[in-house]
Amino acid sequence: MSLAYRIMYRVGFTPWDTGEVSSELRALVEDGDALPPGRALDIGCGTGTQAVYLAHHGWSVTGIDAVEQPLRRAHARAIAEGVSVEWFKADVARLTDLDLKPGYTLVFDRGCYHGLRSEQRAAYVAGVTALAVSGATLLVMAFEPNRILAAPPGADEAEITATFACWELTGAEPDRGPAPAGPLRNLARTWYRLVRRCPDAHRRSSLSATGDSHVLGHFRDRT
Ligand SMILES: C[S@@+](CC[C@H](N)C(=O)[O-])C[C@H]1O[C@@H](n2cnc3c(N)ncnc32)[C@H](O)[C@@H]1O
């Protein structure tokens, strides 16, 4: 799937890249019962719209994407807007290879998980579960399961509930954003909100704490 994304970024066909912050994320950050700023992990961050928004709201943010082109734009966007975000070029199914310090209180994924194969999904879930604190929130947007050629295969509530075994599903709401241009515009899009319930002792020992590694000047390639 990341080859497909590489091609789409190269040719400029990126219907998801609206430059708009998701209203579902805004609600989590700005509404009356908003989460307090903490550490956020933006999985499949693309050009960094949401990661930079979170940084503006006091979050300490790590953005991860497998494709260099959007990461360069994300990095430039953060510099232009004067915020610091730690960017990694890496496979989200290999999070345990990164020297990330556990302790994330928010994991955000707008359209990455639903494009992964099932074995990648299991590795992704193990990685984010190890990196998130008990009680952390995960907000993930997925297309409904489908067989459209070259589309992300999607995910439904049953699959998400089963795969995120350490997480409790606390909400499932239709995406309120505009439908993407192109052949996927009629697919239902759902935001799933989950809370990590397993105790922190479930973290993998390989994810030992590292020093403060926030970087403004470059992003790191871990592919
Ligand atoms: C639909 S786009 C969404 C981008 C961004 N979240 C947004 O809302 O604009 C999915 C993103 O996930 C990234 N991605 C897909 N598979 C990945 C993987 N295995 N590891 C890291 N990033 C991946 C793609 O490169 C792409 O930027």
Give a brief rundown of this model.
The chain is 27% helix and 24% strand. By secondary structure, it is α/β, with parallel strands linked by helices. It has one domain (23-198): Vaccinia Virus protein VP39 (Rossmann fold, 3-Layer(aba) Sandwich), CATH 3.40.50.150.
CATH topology: Rossmann fold
Individual helix count: 6
Topology pattern, helix = H, strand = E: HHEHEHEEHEHEEE
Instruction: Tell me the count of domains.
Output: 1
Number of strands: 8
Strand order of the largest sheet: 6-7-5-4-1-2-3-8
Task: Give me some keywords for this one.
223 residues, Rossmann fold, 6 helices, 8 strands, globular
What would you say this structure looks like, in words?
The chain has one domain (23-198): Vaccinia Virus protein VP39 (Rossmann fold, 3-Layer(aba) Sandwich). It has six helices and eight strands; from the N terminus they run ααβαβαββαβαβββ. The model is unreliable at 202-217 (pLDDT under 50). It is globular. It is of the alpha/beta class and 223 residues long.
